[in-house]
Amino acid sequence: MIIRRQLGVKGQVVIPKDIRKILGLETGEEVVFEVVNDEVRIKREEDVNKIVDDFFDVPGKKKKQSSIKEIKKIIYEQYDEEIP
User: Is 24 left (phi over 0), alpha (psi -120 to 50) or beta?
Assistant: First the structure.
């Protein structure tokens, strides 16, 4: 899909409705701009909690919500360090 938009006087561009719909973007959500060579990629901001949950997800195991505090505790215990 290629859509052209004109750059505004403040350097702003409106993300077309079709693209917002495809990405599931709602008003007020944050997006990430990634520059790769001469291209700019726009992505939804990923939910850190979802990434952590997916990382620790074990198939067939009952899901448990992990907090950042619990994860830090596990990491510090592995390396025998004190929790700050």
Answer: left
Q: Based on the fold, state whether residues 29 and 69 are members of the same structural domain.
A: no
Rounded to two decimals, what is the model's pTM?
0.49
Whether 54 and 39 map to the same domain: the answer is no
For the stretch 9-47, pLDDT in tens is 999 999 999 988 988 888 988 888 889 999 988 888 777
Q: Which of 41, 8, 39 is nearest to 23 (CA)?
A: 41
What residue type is assigned to position 21 of the chain?
K
Same domain, 6 and 36: yes
> Parallel, antiparallel, or unpaired: how do β-strands 31-36 and 39-44 relate?
antiparallel
